[in-house]
Specification:
The protein is of the alpha/beta class. It is built from eleven helices and nine strands.
Length: 254
């Protein structure tokens, strides 16, 4: 199994910072611009890239990512296109960890075994399925493991610590994606006041690294999160900027 995710978090820790996980809706604004932006993000310090697969009903996402997904779908971008992009990106970035970020219908429609084989051929490190509950996770994980691919669980703000522990069991070379706020994705001016205490509690309860996301849009927010988690996730802020500018020139976070 690939250990790129583990190495990314270890490298960030050794450098005294949180690992930077960057989300992109693959194929938005165009596939070429999307891939170029990912190149720029990695050059700018992103450790792990989440490759968002456009989906017609992205219920967990806010307006920015939802609109980006619809635009990519209009251009005909599908799972196979995202995996093809992953292959091209892997050739340029052998040490970067790539997480395929999707909804379960996309995976199920392709067929679990066919999907796992295709993801392995694209050298994907992990899969994150937004709507796959813990009780049904092993249906996918058992198929992914033989291909050397791990799974990244989403942890909701109201998930009890015992269930968080269960979510971490059976996983290696992965991390827990801790959702910072109730609701959908999207940049927020402020994060919940009780967030840092929750991150501390989760971090103490599990051995896997934890990265917090949903709402993080500035370096100041990322710095606060990094004091209580092993990494932070930025998505909507990058997707919005990419849609407005067509590129990610300069600093990634204000």
């Amino acid at each position: 199994m690939s250990d790129r995710i583990t190495k990314c978090f270890a490298k960030a820790k050794a450098e005294g910072r949180g690992a930077f996980v960057a989300y992109f809706t693959t194929g938005y604004p165009t596939m070429a611009q999307s891939e170029a932006a990912i190149d720029q993000a990695i050059a700018g310090g992103a450790d792990i890239i989440e490759l968002g697969v456009p989906f017609s009903d992205p219920f967990a996402d806010g307006g920015v990512i939802r609109s980006a997904a619809y635009e990519a779908l209009k251009q005909g971008v599908c799972l196979d296109d995202v995996l093809a992009a992953a292959k091209r990106l892997r050739a340029k970035h052998p040490e970067t960890a790539f997480v395929l970020f999707t909804y379960y219908n996309v995976i199920f429609s392709k067929g679990l075994e066919t999907f796992a084989k295709a993801a392995a051929e694209a050298d994907i490190d992990a899969v994150l399925s937004v709507d796959l509950p813990l009780e049904e996770r092993d249906e996918l994980l058992d198929v992914l493991k033989p291909y050397g691919i791990t799974y990244v669980p989403l942890i909701a703000p109201n998930t009890p610590i015992e269930r968080v522990k269960e979510s971490a069991e059976g996983l290696e070379n992965s991390f827990l994606y801790i959702i910072t706020v109730k609701g959908i994705t999207g940049a927020r001016a402020e994060l919940p006041p009780d967030l840092t205490a929750r991150l501390d509690a989760i971090r103490a309860a599990v051995k896997l690294p934890i990265a917090a996301g949903f709402g993080i849009s500035t370096q100041a927010q990322a710095d606060v999160i990094s004091q209580h988690a092993d990494g932070f996730v930025v998505g909507s802020a990058l997707v919005k900027r990419l849609g407005a500018e067509g590129q990610l020139a300069g600093k990634l976070l204000p």
